[in-house]
């Protein structure tokens, strides 16, 4: 796959319906990209793909390295990231990053964006999840047992995507970011953050989107796959 | 691209918002598939891609050959079709074909299907459209000036796709078929049909979906791109 094209395995609507007990090998995901986000079997935690390495943030916020040969992945979004644009800024929160990206890519209103932010964060609030209590438990219920923590004066990297409105259901419309600390000890889904010094933002616009659906997967086949995920799940 | 993978240029939600005054060259579409459906600049008529040849059904139901080197296409869905399954049946209408496909592919409830039906049709009712009266006129308004005709005892080919529910907005959820007569003189979007002799059905399941969005296209960038097309537009 060429640089800056989206590769996605399965759909967010499948996670909403609790389809997470099977998937594809992580090495298959990595064959399509070196940068991205996702989840793990039974939605156990948050995935960060950074420079081709994959980290699993467990339910308690701790991080382990995921073995590409052995890890089975029910959902992920990745790209072979090559920044089209880099800049240094101070930002307040996801709203600040949202405005910055919109300004930087005025012709990408209906395109995908890939984003990476490196630097020292004054604060960053992260969410992670313990995973399903039973097969087919949906993402909304999984997220009721979420853990949040706020890290202060921490160095690390935000990895994520912006998806256009019409891709909702397949993925999450809008911005969706995960974070991992520089020492690779803590991480999670980004709820909010603040910076007081410049951080480095790298991003690119993407117009090609490649979706691979689970095959020979009874759970996926039987799922209702609603189109509209709960927006509040990802917005806050 | 491998056999039986979906390639789609632009989105149905873009057509709903009237984004149809620019596009990609037809030869670029044909590089990704030899079988499919779509529309033309300013939504002028219905596209049938059959065995790598492209036909344009004009607003009056007549058919012309579309030159891959010169024709600009705002929206199309194609695949490199290789039937996974063929059968001969008598069917009543789109409902009959729908039931047949569901029976033939029990594990494809949330996958894409590609379909081709060849044979003698007792009746077939077709719709076509004249196209936009002005730039940005949406598909719903374009379809108010539709032409329908019913052909009787006519030989020809149905070409089309089934898309899963979660792909609505990107494409049309459900079945979507176009038709062209064997003599390539008439055609259109299939509203209904009936057979009294066996026709030949060829189909395949598809789990890979490749979307390419218009780039450097102000109309596309400025469009609102609603997720939900009017279902009745395509169901009847």
Automatic annotation (TrEMBL), chains A, B:
Keywords: Acetoin biosynthesis, Decarboxylase, Lyase. Pathway: Polyol metabolism; (R,R)-butane-2,3-diol biosynthesis; (R,R)-butane-2,3-diol from pyruvate: step 2/3. It is an enzyme of class 4 (lyase). One of its GO terms (molecular function) is acetolactate decarboxylase activity. The keyword RNA-binding does not apply. Gene3D superfamilies: Hypothetical protein, similar to alpha- acetolactate decarboxylase, domain 2. The keyword Cytoplasm does not apply. This is Alpha-acetolactate decarboxylase. NCBIfam families: acetolac_decarb. The lineage of its organism: Eukaryota, Fungi, Dikarya, Ascomycota, Pezizomycotina. Its EC number is 4.1.1.5. GO terms for biological process: acetoin biosynthetic process. It catalyses: (2S)-2-acetolactate + H(+) = (R)-acetoin + CO2. Transmembrane segments: none annotated. Belongs to the alpha-acetolactate decarboxylase family.
